[in-house]
Amino acid sequence: GQNIDQPTEMTATEGAIVQINCTYQTSGFNGLFWYQQHAGEAPTFLSYNVLDGLEEKGRFSSFLSRSKGYSYLLLKELQMKDSASYLCAVRDGDSWGKLQFGAGTQVVVTP
Amino acid sequence: DGGITQSPKYLFRKEGQNVTLSCEQNLNHDAMYWYRQDPGQGLRLIYYSQIVNDFQKGDIAEGYSVSREKKESFPLTVTSAQKNPTAFYLCASSMLGGGGNQPQHFGDGTRLSIL
After folding, report:
1. Cis-peptide into B8, omega within 30 deg
2. Hey, which of A40, B41, B90, B109 has its CA 20 to 30 A from B8?
3. Of A61, A76, A58, nearest to A17 (Cα)?
4. Is A93 strand, coil or helix?
5. A47-98: per-residue pLDDT in tens?
6. Which one, of B94, B60, B67, B78, lies nearest residue B21 by Cα?
7. Residues in chain A closer than 8 A to B50 (CB atoms)
8. Chain-centre distance of CA A77, in angstroms?
9. Structure confidence at residue A90 (pLDDT)
10. Disruptive mutation site among A96, A105, A106 for chain B (greatest number of B CBs within 10 Å)
């Protein structure tokens, strides 16, 4: 079966750093995606990891360890607009397109 | 501008009624997907399609139907057999190939409620 776990909610202060962890157990692995979703809106693509290591994109970085079934999304220099839900999604062994999503982590940024 | 258009934004269904949610994309993407999102839960896959005139059931296909007569369009019908249809419905599309690194792009969603 498929199992993707993320914390339900995290709170951090504007300007701080927050790390959102994602662990997965899937029937195969062909990449991990992070999406940002503001309330009532469409998810937007943030990052993609398929090899072990860190991918950096501006204030956002994503890390993957395939042997541990683990990823994290790092948000630096937090801004109020970063308050949103962050979704971890795994592409399983069927490589053509299907994703399994975690329930999402709600990040609340406080002044 | 290229993108995915879902309509309507809000939809109400009466008991015993079928309703159809529209999804159109002009990104020239091969694959299209329908997801359902409930509060506190992740996106769950309803149906997906890789090419025209072909589609497969996802994890929660019961009570739903789709068609893919054109590459650009992937409408979802919520039938009366779906007893708990109240949810946020999201349509997505992606290119295929590239070793699986093509992200899915999402429409703005349709919020369906029961009258």
Report:
1. yes
2. B41
3. A76
4. coil
5. 999 999 999 999 999 999 999 999 999 999 999 999 999 999 998 776 566 8
6. B78
7. 96-97
8. 17
9. 93
10. A96
